Amino acid sequence: MGKSSKTKKQSDHKKISGSKETDSKVNQQADTAAKSAEAPGNRWTFLTNHAHVLILLHREPEIVLRQVAVQVGITERAVQRIIQDLEEEGFIHREKVGRQNRYEVLTDQPLRHSIEKHKKIGELLELVSE
């Protein structure tokens, strides 16, 4: 019984160390994305971080916040605030599925600024879709 307990602890340690490696890789990706966004000539983009998050949620409704942060080049906390903004304003619906969230972008909502409010979110998403 002692050996199986020791073996289990070793197995658990391997799982943990594997997740640390994954965390490290994701953190490196986030750093690279952030540096790329800050590089000379990349000081701004045509779309906001809110738009970038919305696009990713539309493309991959079950994406985890960490991956959104890495791809956009912002912190997970910033992603949380953006998702809260989008949800409070009625642009997305969040549903809990097990331990993860599933996001639905409400594509019939108009864009917010007066210059583009005659267009719907779905039209923007269609324009930038792959």
Which keywords apply here?
Arc Repressor Mutant, subunit A; 130 residues; two-stranded antiparallel sheet; mainly alpha; 9% strand
Record field, number of beta strands: 2
Uncertain regions spanning at least 5 consecutive residues: 5-18
Largest sheet: 2 strands, antiparallel
Question: Radius of gyration over alpha carbons?
Answer: 19 Å
Please report the first level of CATH classification, the CATH class of the largest domain.
Answer: Mainly Alpha
Helix content: 55-70%
**Bulk shape:** globular
- What is the straight-line distance between the termini? 55 Å
CATH topology name of the largest domain: Arc Repressor Mutant, subunit A
CATH architecture of the largest domain: Orthogonal Bundle
The largest beta-sheet arranges its strands as 1-2
For the record, the count of structural domains works out to 2
- SSE run: HHHHEEH
Number of helices: 5
CATH superfamily of the largest domain: Winged helix-like DNA-binding domain superfamily/Winged helix DNA-binding domain
Task: Please state the structural category.
Answer: mainly alpha
| Rounded average pLDDT | 82
Strand content: 5-15%
